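Any chance you could type out some protein's one-letter sequence along with its backbone structure tokens so I can compare the two?
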Amino acid sequence: MKGELMIYSVTLNPSIDFIVRVKDFQIGETNRAYEDNFFAGGKGIMVSKLLKNVGTECVNLGFLGGFTGAFIEKNLKKLNIPSDFVTVEENTRINVKLKTEEETEINCPGPKISEKEKEEFLDKIRKIKRDDFVILSGSVPSNLGNDFYINIIEILNENSVKFTLDSSGETFKKSLKYKPFLIKPNKDELKEYAKREFKDNKEIIDYVRTNLVGMAENVIISLGGEGALYIAKDFSLFAQPFKAKENVVNTVGAGDSVVAGFVNYMLKENDVEKAFRFAVACGTATSFSEDIGELEFIEEISKKLVIEREHYGN
């Protein structure tokens, strides 16, 4: 990457992801897991893990507390991923991911953040340099309020720091005023924003070209198992769903991997089509991995992806 550029990944509400695998899960009965794993989780942490796997350093910012926070800190150190978290009094949360016939998640609310802890975090944001890059993603501790991301973005905007926000609802809408480097709503989030249904990809592309292109530098629409779209004013790219012999292993972190992969490639090479291919490969590799996709697997998938390009007139 150019010069001393540093990527920061903000995880305001990290978690330990406790992944439990159960066969023939029965509600109301005693179920026995055949496997369980603990991972450092939270969307921003997933971003930093993907970046580490592709050879890019990323500093984690956010809040950690208690024995659960210590576990995450230790886990990141083991992975050689740098962090600069604010230490808080209450415990970092544990989220439960139940892997059975149907995947089920229980996400906990997380710690309350004091005024002093909040200001300590915002001071770290104020020190980020103009040429650096910030990736914001995941939930916000409840007592900080829905506009806390916007408070962060306003500071970044004042200091001319580029950012991407992976969020939805009102926060997503308000962030567009500051022209994010990348937005990546999924199909459901796009429906929520547009307050309408989309019967096919053409309707999505037409809507996004008219209403979202120009409000962000780059727009990716995640279609889940139906692929992904990159949409610009004069062209679109469609990544066909990846066909694999194996079943999807883990959807946790797949979207975060897309964001990290795209940002990483664009900051290095500034080539939209190659960055989109790499991003989709990152997300796909993660969905077929226990944790986050590894570089060798990402590169293997990238070569096999089918990307269709369509041009539009003025």
